[in-house]
Amino acid sequence: MKQVRTQVRTQVRDQVEAQVFRQVGDQVRDQVLAQVEDQVWAQVWAQVEDQVEDQVWAQVGAQVEAHVWDQVGDQVGDQVRTQIGE
User: Fold this and answer.
1) Mean per-residue pLDDT, 51-72
2) Helix, strand, coil percentages in the chain from 3-state DSSP, rounded to 5
3) Long-range contacts of 39-44 (CB under 8 A, 24+ apart)
């Protein structure tokens, strides 16, 4: 009878231990995957954000520069015409 009790106790302990390790393993794996995923997404978004920001500023800069040069060109043209006309 004592052997049966010991055997049952060992089997139950092994099953519980296996189940606990499985659950803990799953939780740890999920946590690690979530952290890695968060880090990867943060890096991806940082890169995308930088690229988009660079593109937007390049376009805005080009438009502003073109507008400024248009105005400067008009002013210089007006001054030259005024001086020539005088």
Assistant:
1) 89
2) 100, 0, 0
3) none
The CA–CA distances, whole Å, from 4 to 9, 17, 18, 55 equal 8, 20, 21, 75
Residue with tokens 């400024």: 68
Task: Report DSSP letters for 1-38, one per residue.
Answer: -HHHHHHHHHHHHHHHHHHHHHHHHHHHHHHHHHHHHH
Distances (CA, A) of 21 to 7, 10, 14, 28: 21, 16, 10, 10
Can you give the pTM of this predicted structure? 0.45
Q: Say if residue 85's pLDDT is above 80.
A: no
Mean pLDDT on 63-80 = 85
Q: For residues 40 and 33, what is the distance between their CA atoms, to the nearest angstrom? A: 10
The closest alpha carbon to 19, from 31, 7, 11, 8, belongs to: 11
* Summary mean pLDDT of the chain: 89
